[in-house]
């Protein structure tokens, strides 16, 4: 448990005048026994911060950092929203995963504006990364940590068997647009001997959908599932590909999906930078060199993944917390975190660092993966505007609806169900 100084008013009154000053409302309530300011940092999964915390404490002897680390993003954010509702219990610095960012933005009044309390760090990040954490009235509630720029991964051996080009440069034209991607899928399916083109419909649909200017809501937070033709256009394109046999129909993160990498159940994968590690772990050593990644993604760039560091207004040491968050997300520290845990940087200077640009991946044929994904990150045009329930609709409405199509449900009926469920979620 993190140490706290919990002293009653009567106990404070009995103390010396020097001690009492620390008991008032303006005192440093989060202090250790030796008088250091304690800053709590709540994260999940692996941010690569353990050594950075020690480094910061060494250069700031008045600071003690206590980490609260959840194993997965879901329980971390459940805890976050519970404590936001309760009005107490949050850490000084709270990490937010981009999939939950729209919900946090709807509660932005409970977070500090880092432009006001933090150091001057303008223009550090890729613009789209900062824009996503900026409120309509211009408040910045999160410093960007990592990102997940998208490229395309594919099985070279399966491409060759189907008569498609397999060299990373030669396949770029196949992945130039979504039309060319699905057309290549038709060619592949005709000669693949039963191997699917992609893993599942939801993964493709999400990538397509997230490239649009707005998500399931417009910028006035009105649901636009029915009125935005781009959403139905993406649906039609993906479900048409499903009908042609392009989907392996494997639910993401299921045991069957994991096994699919090893058995060669599908030939292509929408591939954020962190997906290389997933593929290597699931496909295994016996498939080393069979998977490749190319510097291309249909219709330009895209992003899947990444987080932010926020400072809730509950923090008793908000300015010092903002200083720590700014330091952790500085270019130098982003490179150190990348070396430690592979978290891909969002800082402009970090994306130009030789340590990143020269990084190679032996499993994927020695490709300069750092340089490849740095180039892909710069192709992202803008941050998509997402309404409060955007993430819930993606995960709990459209993903299940697309799975139902893969399981045989009529496409139009599945669309009607998705629209109805989205309307319920938006209420």
Would you summarize the structure shown here?
The protein is of the alpha+beta class.
What would your notes on this structure say?
The protein is α+β, with helices and mostly antiparallel strands and 427 residues long. The protein folds into 2 domains: 36-147 and 305-357, Periplasmic binding protein-like II (D-Maltodextrin-Binding Protein, domain 2); 149-303 and 364-426, Periplasmic binding protein-like II (D-Maltodextrin-Binding Protein, domain 2). The protein is 42% helix and 12% strand. It contains 19 helices and 8 strands. The protein has helices at residues 9-13, 17-20, 50-59, 73-86, 101-105, 114-117, 127-132, 156-161, 178-191, 201-209, 229-243, 255-263, 275-283, 318-328, 331-341, 354-357, 369-377, 390-406, 411-426, and strands at residues 37-44, 63-70, 93-97, 143-155, 268-272, 291-294, 303-310, 344-345. Strands 1, 2, 3, 4, 5, 6, 7 and 8 form an 8-stranded mixed sheet that branches. Helix 3 (50-59) links the parallel strand 1 and strand 2. Helix 10 packs antiparallel against helix 11 (229-243), helix 10 (201-209) runs antiparallel to helix 18 (390-406) and helix 18 packs antiparallel against helix 19 (411-426). The longest helix is centred in the C-terminal third of the chain and has 17 residues, at 390-406. The chain is globular and about 70 Å long. The two termini are 39 Å apart. The model is unreliable at 1-28 (pLDDT under 50). It comes from Lentzea flava. Residues 1-22 form the signal peptide. This is Sugar ABC transporter substrate-binding protein. InterPro entries: Bact_solute-bd_prot1, SBP. Keywords: Signal.
């Amino acid at each position: 448990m993190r140490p706290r100084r919990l002293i009653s008013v009567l106990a404070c009154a009995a103390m010396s005048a020097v001690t009492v000053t620390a008991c008032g409302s303006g005192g440093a309530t989060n202090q250790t026994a030796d008088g250091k300011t304690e800053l709590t940092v709540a994260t999940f999964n692996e941010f690569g911060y353990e050594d950075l915390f020690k480094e910061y404490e060494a250069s700031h002897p008045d600071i003690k950092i206590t980490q609260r680390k959840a194993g997965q993003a879901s329980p971390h954010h459940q805890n976050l929203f519970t404590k936001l509702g309760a009005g107490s219990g949050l850490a000084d610095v709270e990490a937010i995963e981009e999939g939950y960012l729209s919900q946090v933005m709807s509660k932005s009044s409970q977070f500090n504006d880092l432009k006001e309390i933090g150091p001057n760090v303008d223009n550090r990040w890729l613009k789209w990364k900062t824009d996503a954490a900026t409120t309509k009235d211009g408040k910045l509630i999160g410093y960007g940590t990592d990102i997940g720029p998208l490229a395309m991964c594919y099985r070279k051996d399966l491409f060759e068997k189907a008569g498609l080009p397999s060299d990373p440069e030669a396949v770029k034209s196949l992945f130039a647009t979504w039309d060319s991607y699905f057309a290549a899928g038709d060619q592949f399916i005709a000669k693949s001997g039963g191997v699917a083109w992609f893993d599942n419909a939801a993964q493709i649909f999400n990538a397509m959908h997230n490239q649009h200017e707005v998500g399931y809501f417009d910028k006035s937070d009105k649901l636009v599932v029915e009125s935005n033709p781009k959403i139905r256009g993406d649906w039609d394109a993906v479900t048409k590909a499903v009908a042609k046999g392009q989907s392996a129909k494997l639910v993401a993160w299921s045991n069957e999906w994991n096994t699919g990498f090893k058995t060669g159940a599908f030939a292509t994968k929408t591939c954020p930078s962190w997906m290389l590690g997933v593929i290597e772990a699931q496909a295994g050593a016996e498939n080393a060199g069979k998977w490749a990644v190319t510097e291309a993604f249909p219709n330009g760039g895209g992003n899947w993944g990444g987080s932010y560091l926020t400072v809730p207004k509950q923090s008793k040491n908000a300015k010092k917390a903002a200083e720590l968050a700014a330091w952790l997300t500085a270019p130098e520290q982003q490179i150190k975190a990348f070396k430690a845990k592979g978290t891909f940087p969002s800082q402009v200077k970090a994306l130009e660092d030789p340590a990143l640009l020269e990084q190679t991946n032996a499993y994927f044929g020695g490709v300069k993966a750092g340089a490849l994904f740095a180039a892909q990150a710069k192709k992202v045009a803008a941050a998509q505007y997402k309404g409060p329930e955007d993430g819930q609709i993606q995960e709990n409405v459209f993903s299940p609806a697309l799975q139902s199509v893969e399981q045989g449900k009529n496409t139009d009926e599945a669309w009607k169900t998705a629209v109805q469920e989205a309307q319920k979620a938006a209420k």
